[in-house]
Amino acid sequence: MSPDILMIGSFLLALLLGVPVAIALGLGGLVGIVSGLSPDMLATFGTNTYNSVAKYPLIAIPLFILTGLIFERAGVAASLVRFAQAIIGPRHGSLTVVAVLVCLIMGGMSGSGPADAAAVAMVMLPSMRKAGYPQPFSAALIAASSSTAILIPPSIALILYSIVVPGVDLRALFAAGLFPGILAGLSLLVPALYLARKFGWENPEESERPPFWPSFKAALPALFAPVIILGGLRSGLFTPTEAAVVAVTYGVIVGTLVYRNLSFRNLFDLMTDAAVTSGVVMLIIALAGIFAWAGTTLGTFQHLADALLSLSDNGWVLLGLVMVLVLIAGMLLDAISIYLILIPIVLPLMNHFGWNPVWFGILLAMNIAIGQFTPPVAVNLMVTTRIANIRLEHTIGWALVFIAAMSVSLLLVMLIPGIALWLPEQLGYVVGPW
């Protein structure tokens, strides 16, 4: 049996047996080294794991994870929900608009879908239940809306993509994700508003509109967070990694001095949680380095890319096939694992067909976002259903509706690259060849 098959097969078998993704990646890499290279190459284990994580931009990941936790527990979501309700007012489906809008804004603070899902669900689910929305519908909508965090800058997944794909400007990726993220959010509103009006959920006469100016004043510190992060990046005041430090600092100030929902004891607990989460992420990245080195040295990734190229000479056919593969992977794996596993395989395809790397990165992110609320794994759905105290399978019907809606926005960005590339081009960022 060839080393390629042994490496990929051992990795997939480990996943099927329930082995954690990080360990499965490391195990697959070790099997590839032992079966296809000299056993002496096992000595590279330490060097490869270290080189995988010893990259300056990766510092931003634990810091943005901490930022998300700080804003989640500082009460930011509650102030944003009240402000959004003051803008939209009582009407059929207004709470669906509020949920999507708040998820988009929260995505501009943390870059993490599960963190946004938890923060918004804690505030929105009781209100939507009181207004007559079925809990499975509400949980599915919030899970789908929070998945846009992977697109709205700062996105942890896009940070990793900029590291894995050489020569991609992270600022261009951040700018490119903004309009597709908004488009994805709007695509979810179409079926949500239709269903709310069809079934008569949320009687406007039974809802109260919060006063605008007090709500705006309370939400202003939260609204400034994305402005500070993106404004600083655009002006060149700080790099994306430095932006993560600024975001944490601003979050601490807002949480302790403005909203006063955080104490120094809370901050210690938050840093502990962020360290644990970051440790899991970094372990995946480190052991994926073994898998990537073995696959590159053996030529496994090139062989897989050649096999895909042999299926068709049409770039659009293969792009559609890649999107299907990424969607399936998104149903089973987290975004970080998908980038680390699939990008070495699809990178030769991207170079062969001349796909724009920034546009292609956004397509991958949109596809992974759909996977975050697609069963059986559906990490965002797991969060919202746990908070709603319902079973995940009760949400499948509603989730399918939102999967179809966001797939339409993915198709639009695929057919019209300018949706993603216009803003970074206007801002003067390098978006690569087309």
TrEMBL record:
Membrane topology: Multi-pass membrane protein
Subunit structure: The complex comprises the extracytoplasmic solute receptor protein and the two transmembrane proteins.
Domain TRAP C4-dicarboxylate transport system permease DctM subunit per the UniProt entry, residue ranges: 9-419
Record function comment: Part of the tripartite ATP-independent periplasmic (TRAP) transport system.
Protein's recorded name: TRAP transporter large permease protein
Source superkingdom: Bacteria
InterPro entries according to UniProt: DctM, TRAP_DctM
